[in-house]
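Hello Y.,

Per our agreement to keep a running log of every chain we model this quarter, I'm adding this entry. I've kept the format consistent with earlier entries: sequence first, then predicted structure.
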Amino acid sequence: MAELWVEKYRPKKVSEVVGNHDSVKAFVEWMKSWELGKPSKKAVLLYGPAGVGKTSLVLAYAREHGYDVVEVNASDWRNEERMKMVVGESSLQATLDGTTKKIILVDEVDGIAGREDAGGLSALRKIIDNTRTPIALVANNPWDPRLASIRDRCLMLQFRRLRKSEVIKRLKEIALAEGIKVTDAALKKLAERSEGDLRSAINDLQAIASGRKVVDVDAVEVLGERNRVREIFQALRIIFNTKSLRAARAALEGLEIDLDMVYAWLIDNVPEQIPNPEELAEAYEALAKADLFLAKASREQKWKLTRYAIPLMTGGVALARRTKPHGFVKFTFPSKIRLMQKSRAERELRHSIASKIAGKLHLSSAKAITHMLPYISFIMSRGDEYAKAMAEYFEFTSSETKYLAGEGGEVEVAKVAVEKKRKRTRRTRRR
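Predicted structure for the entry above:
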């Protein structure tokens, strides 16, 4: 399988990082202050939307200046003991001999602030206070009140969505390197769809460039009404062929398909893609554990548990496959999805809901679906005052409300709409 372009063209030097020049410059100055002596802030918090270069900046600086990177995902390390073991030890051991230089990279630090936190935040605060090596924290939204003490200890650097011109320029460079001609109209369309997310734009370009020497605007339209989405086939190709945990996990980013559906695709295709019995058993074990988290998340409405299912579904399967099948093996369409496939009307309804959520919360449609829709759907299903207020705030139509509320839950919300209509009618009559 061809290498993912987001990894192939990830910046190798700080000068190659696209956009957010002031924040990039501030990060470099902060790192230099570490090299000259301890800075006023022992940690830096890079925050902003996905795909704008936060993690890439840290990795590029480390590569360019000879630092080892100790990388952890905070959402997977909420436990105090684990945080101390992985991050704490590295923070004390680094640079003591003057030869080994390290940067500790803690991604998704906003994921620690959930109800599942078991001392992770407290441990991280102590680690920052006592660290002997730079700590770079990365977050999409660092403004949870529980993160206040972390913010106080960090140099805060905001990363904004990239400008359309910056995305276009980088896509041009990649297309030139790959020997692909991309029309100006196609580049503009890709940049607009990305909403300032360079990683998403590069993924979309690679998806539609496959088998083409010329990419025009019609090729971009093949992506349909999806917002920054890769085909499920491409995601599966990544999972079944990569040996990079980062690449495997990233395979589902922006994919507007429910995790249950992705799971169905994997379950039905694993036997054909992983012919070795021992490797197949490992893959099924990873999927079985993922299924437990998905089931618990659905049953108890604890949607954050999906954070644990995704690495098992992606990295667990990717690492299990060490023997490739003989020849090309097609992906089979899952029987479950054949039975449960949603109609075009429903997909359009879901897209409309996502657009409204995205507009109100200043998110991409993909983020609205993956991160917000489960919570909003749960609230709407209750049919209480919160559901009523939410329906009004997002300006959901009756069909959208019914879809979100599910069976039985739409009754109370529908009553609100009827009552509002009656009040308007009475006011009109009085006039």
